[in-house]
Amino acid sequence: MQNGTLLAAVDLGSNSFRLEIGRFEHGQIHRTEYLKETVRQGNGLDDARNLTGEAMQRGWDCLARFGERLAGFRKSQVRAVATQTLREARNRDVFLARAHQVLGFPIDVISGREEARLIYQGVAHLLPQSDERRLVVDIGGRSTELILGQQFDATVMESYRVGSVAWSMKHFPDGQFTEGAFEKAEIAAKAVLDEALGSYAPGNWDVAYGSSGTIGAVGDVLAAAGYPAGLVTRDGLAWLHGRLLAARSADRLRLDGMKEDRRAVIGGGLCVLQAVFDLLEIETLHAAQGALRHGVLYDLLDREQGGTDIRSATVQRLAAKFGADAAQAGRVGKVACQLLRQLRQPADGEAAAALERDQRKLNWAAQLHEIGSQISHSDYHKHGAYILDNADAPGFAQPELHRLSLLVLGHRGKLRKLDADFDDELFVHQLLCLRLAVILCHARRDPDLKGVQLQADSREATLALRADWGKAWPQSAHLLREEVIAWQKTPWSLALDGLGQGLA
């Protein structure tokens, strides 16, 4: 990536939406602009876990403003991620469809563990290099992430469904602060977080860091009250607890250093933070500068550089775990990518970079297309797709994994039953190339590709073969004719040129 390139991260949190824009310079990303809006989507989930119309509108309005600022950015320069509220919302697709439109960029709903991994990356990149074992805590609006790591490697990651917005709504619904409400809220938080004791016990880390949201707000208030800047201590939490009880309600709470948008959710956030301190025996928590949005920026950088893309390591891990034939996967991937290059010949530098990314994703599908084989020989493509839709896959957002699962599911068998968007030209091209590669490599040896050329005009693809190819490879020719029939059940068509008379 060239020095001076602008990168942007959009974080759709449960309490706030954030936009971070940074400039890449010599391996580092330096902030040029930061926007934050309190959207409170987290309290817009109704009893059926649907986002209300008002909550969706608040989100769309905010994203429209962010989208105006991002006008002129290329897709490769921006990544938007959504967290717990949209993980929970049953009608999230309704929100995301319009959100994509008004923002101008796709929005990835990431899993809890992926959120935790990205938070750690954000924290680690803004801390000095050190061999210390780190515990990172992030208390968001509807979830709390706990991570153990060293340097830039997160080793243990988990997300718990407890957060400042959710706990404030549940235990302080009228904004009233009482000792009884605090006690119940802390006990409830400990019940959710109790399983963290095994992995995150004090002996497993040296220094504890707190990221973003609640912890940043508490740290600001304590610093304004004279406590050491950048630190949250047990004494400080006890003092803040006393101040909330003295105020008796969120409406009456007035504290130096506390922003107006934080008063309504400080009660629930404080209870969760106290629960974390007690369970993990934390004495001092250092307020970290890095957060989810910074992790997204550095992850975006890794994705563009390719060689450091964690998704490639994740694919290799999954392929090894499920005993995929590495040699066959390599064959299929090489042929599929060669066909995709023929099909989508880049016209300029940006198109070439996009093609490189598309080939990388196609190669991942090739590496994973047989991971269901240990479960079933005949239906391995179905089992492989199920594994991907439900895998713990660091680096991948849920939509990315689902797209991979569709390629794995669709690499063989009938196409008409594939619940995919056949208006998505890139997906169809990737699917076609993968299916053709599997056919050409069906004998599990390197295929004869001399004279093989794949082209497309609109929705009509043609695979050209030299005149003697069908005679030399009759079984492959038969499978290709069957493939022509398979595509007749879709809005696309495949023709074969060079296999003799009567063959379309």
Structure description:
The protein has 504 residues and is of the alpha/beta class. It has 19 helices and 14 strands. The protein has helices at 53-69, 84-88, 92-103, 112-125, 164-171, 179-193, 196-200, 213-224, 234-247, 266-280, 292-305, 310-321, 326-343, 349-368, 380-389, 398-410, 425-440, 469-472, 474-487; strands spanning 6-12, 16-25, 28-38, 78-82, 107-109, 133-139, 144-150, 153-160, 207-211, 231-233, 284-288, 453-457, 460-464, 493-497. It has a six-stranded mixed sheet, with helices on both faces. Strands 3-2-1-4-5 form a five-stranded mixed sheet, sandwiched between helices. Strand 6 (133-139) and strand 7 form a beta hairpin. The chain starts with 5 loop residues before the first strand and ends in a 7-residue tail after the last strand. The model has no long low-confidence stretch (mean pLDDT 92).
Briefly note the structural class of the backbone: alpha/beta
Number of strands: 14
Widest sheet, order of strands? 8-7-6-9-11-10
CATH architecture of the largest domain: Orthogonal Bundle
Strand % is: 15-25%
Principal-axes shape call = elongated
Instruction: Determine the CATH superfamily of the largest domain.
Output: Hypothetical protein af1432
What is the tally of helical segments?
19
